[in-house]
Amino acid sequence: MTDLFDVIHAQRAHRAFADRPVADADLARILDAAVYAPSAENKQPWEFVVVRDPAGRAAIGALIERAWNSAGKAFSHTRLSPALLTDVDAGATGGIAAAPVHIVVGADTERGLRQTVAESIFPAVQNLMLAAGAIGLGTALTTIAVGYADELRAIVGFPETVRPMAVIPVGYPARPLGPPAREPFAHHTHRDRYGDRWA
Amino acid sequence: MTDLFDVIHAQRAHRAFADRPVADADLARILDAAVYAPSAENKQPWEFVVVRDPAGRAAIGALIERAWNSAGKAFSHTRLSPALLTDVDAGATGGIAAAPVHIVVGADTERGLRQTVAESIFPAVQNLMLAAGAIGLGTALTTIAVGYADELRAIVGFPETVRPMAVIPVGYPARPLGPPAREPFAHHTHRDRYGDRWA
Fold first, then answer.
1. Closest chain B residue to A118 measured between Cα atoms?
2. First CA to last CA distance, chain B
3. Domain for residue B190, yes or no?
4. Is residue A194 included in any domain, yes or no?
């Protein structure tokens, strides 16, 4: 399934993965897609660490679990739907750690500008996740571990000049997921001025 | 052209547009694609103002030109290639203003979390730009006007709770653009630890 609109409409956050390895060639394909994203001044400030090593993935998983249990869960408890809370909880306490690959995304703040890091990294992350979906791989955009930047830096060896931005688990989905739940775009689209609804 | 990989590999920043209107149905298609992006807690904090009004576009264009001339150009002068500097300069001094549509993207910081705004908005922006490319429209991700948040808020009527995140000109390209210039992903990809190059 490589039709752009089909891929976009099917994207879901995967937090449970099959026990099945991911080929280097497939990772190359999604990383190649990532670097075709735009970035401020075309500085391409991304750095990707592809973690297959079980110790590295266990350390990342433990960091996510710690972040979730120490603050995330209590905070999100009343904010998420019960189904989403259950899914996120299962992901943070082992589901994500079980992915065969974690891609840790960093931003080189010497190559790119500190002020434009976000708009220079997340389009690439989205390209990567769409490309993964197109070839049957599941991903999720997680940023909870980024709050523990020093710990995450230590795990993947990022220097001080590379800011951790996201951890993307990559693997074959444990099960197919249905269509994503979204409000129609028209609910949040306006004509010329905020408040003049699109339709 | 709707193959995901073709669209991704052809994406360029368009800063010059043909004098040709864009249909509502096409805008609906790209805005619909935008809202299928992931967002933290699935809060979908985006707000889109579709500016067709000439006065609104002129005001946005003037703001971009002011930002560019007051600081951006001097700063970027030594950072950009001569070709890119020329293109960005032409865009900031009239090219972007001439697009028939500007989509101003905001983040509702009451609906979404302030801390996760970036990762909740830029994937949607990227979906929008990819979808535009798939149907023959040109776009560019611009954030220079966002530094003048109060002025941009006044132009599109965003309340204090909606943070301006990007301005996306949308239109048919003035001319076709060649393939984007990118470093190979392998130059910025590592295995297990930063510094252990992918290949």
1. B118
2. 32
3. no
4. no
Q: Mind telling me how many Å the CA of B57 is from chain A's nearest CA?
A: 9
Domain count, chain B: 1
- Give the closest residue to B188 by CA, choosing from A155, A161, A57, A106: A106
Structure tokens of A123?
A: 């389009």
What residue has token string 């060649």? B178
Nearest to B123 among A36, A126, A157 (CB): A126
pLDDT tens for each residue of B165-179: 999 999 999 999 999
Whether B82 is covered by a domain: the verdict is: yes
Residue B113 lies in a domain: yes
State the DSSP string of A134-186. Answer: HTT-EE--B-GGGGGHHHHHHHHT--TTEEEEEEEEEE-BSS---PPP---GG
**Is the model's pTM score more than 0.95?**
yes
Label residues B66-80 b or e (16+ Cβ within 10 Å = b).
bbbeeebbeebeeeb
Question: Where residue B41 sits, what CATH number does that domain have?
Answer: 3.40.109.10
Query: Which residues have C-beta within 8 Å of that of residue A183, sequence separation ≥ 6?
Result: B35, B44
Residue among B2, B3, B4 with most chain A CBs within 10 A, to mutate:
B4
Q: pLDDT digits over A120-174, tens only? A: 999 999 999 999 999 999 999 999 999 999 999 999 999 999 999 999 999 999 9
Closest partner CB to B119 (pick from A3, A157, A166): A166
ipTM for the complex shown: 0.97
- How far from chain centre, in Å, is Cα A36? 17
Domain containing A128 equals 4-188
Chain Cα centroid distance, residue B154: 20
